[in-house]
Amino acid sequence: MFQVQTGLRGNITDSIKFDVSAQYGETTQNQQRINWGSSSKVQQALLAYDSNGAAPGGLICSNTANGCVPLNLFGPEGSITADQIAFIDLDSQISRLLQQGVVTASISGDLFGLTSPLASSPIAFSIGAEYRKLKATVNPDAPSRIQGEVLGTGARTPPDIGQYDVKEIFGEIIIPLIEDSFIHKATIEAGLRHSDYSTTGTSTTWKAGGTIEPIDGIKFRGMYQVAVRSPNTKELFLSPVQELSNLTTDPCAGAAPTAPRNLCEATGAPAGTYGGISQPSSGQINTTTSGNANLDVERAKTYTLGLVFQPTFVPRFSVTLDYFNIKIDDLISAPSQNDVLNGCYSTALNPAQTPNEFCARISRNPLTGSLNGAGETLGVILASSNFGKLATAGVDLGMNYTLPLDEVFGSGNGKLRFGFNATWLDYYRIQATPKSVNRECAGYYSTSCTNPRPEWKWNSRIGYSDGPIDVSLMWNHVSSVQLERVRPAGTPLNTPAPGGPNPFCTTRNAAGICQNGILPAFRQIDAYDYFDLSVRFDVNDDFELGFLVENLFDKKPPLVGAGVAGTAFNNGNTMPTTYDVIGRAYTVSAKLAF
Question: What is the pTM of this model?
Answer without folding.
Answer: 0.88
